[in-house]
């Protein structure tokens, strides 16, 4: 997929002296879902705000489909839809009116058929005549997405799209995002929900203290940094780990009833058969065994962990 957004050596220092972004390099491909993860204050919203033309950078460049976001503001902004974290809608307007008005703000001619399609795609059609104030939080979030899509952008930024939404509506929102991507929209989302990034993203970017720590294909990231553990429940507790098992890096839980073997599943030789043979030689009998793999949350915590 070709690159749609290019961020090069981007930095932002506010008047207070706070350096929010430090020499960020990032490319976003057309048609992908990129999840931006990072703790509060990491720089996620600042990065989005600069790409969307809402905040001026202190240094570096950002282009959207070849348009510089500073010099060619109108051209770049017309390609972008932004759904902010805050629910800022006119409480007394109807769904139809507020979405139609948003289209007009971009100088687009009225197109009732497009507005109808957007509302139907977001399951809002039966609420089109409802005032915003009568809608649930999840429905208001969908209206915000409809407003952002009203002018037919190629790119959609979602800042914490499921914040304050219950589990059922979050799952429904994930499907909405997938459907938008299937319709050709490139999506960049920030989220505090690690499972959200793991569920729907193609690539994951991790920002910490204003620096881009990592940008990687989700599957590759899991393969590179994820680890597997073999957990062996014992029939009888062990007082201590036999010396031969220590050579494999095996650990004994404090209560002595479980052995844990951590290994790289990508290696041709995981040494698991040798570990099991060593257990047999030591006369250690197993009650049960299971494996687990590091989640994206485990990886994220490792990447942003503060130095000791």
Index terms:
Rossmann fold, alpha/beta, 6-stranded mixed sheet, 308 residues, Alpha-Beta Plaits, 14 strands, 33% helix, elongated, single chain
Number of distinct helices? 11
Give the second-level CATH assignment, the architecture of the largest domain: 3-Layer(aba) Sandwich
What is the domain tally? 2
Largest sheet entry: 6 strands, mixed
Structural class of the secondary elements?
A: alpha/beta
- Count every beta strand, where a strand is a DSSP E run of 2 or more residues: 14
User: CA-to-CA gap between the ends?
Assistant: 40 Å
Strand-residue proportion: 25-35%
Major sheet: order of its strands?
Answer: 6-7-8-3-9-10
CATH class category name of the largest domain = Alpha Beta
Mean pLDDT: 87
The CATH homology group name of the largest domain? P-loop containing nucleotide triphosphate hydrolases
Which parts are unreliable, with pLDDT below 50 for 5 consecutive residues or more? none
Radius of gyration: 25 Å
Q: Percent of residues in helical segments?
A: 25-40%
| 3D shape | elongated
Order of SSEs, N→C?
EEEHEEHEHHHEHEHEEHEHEEHEH
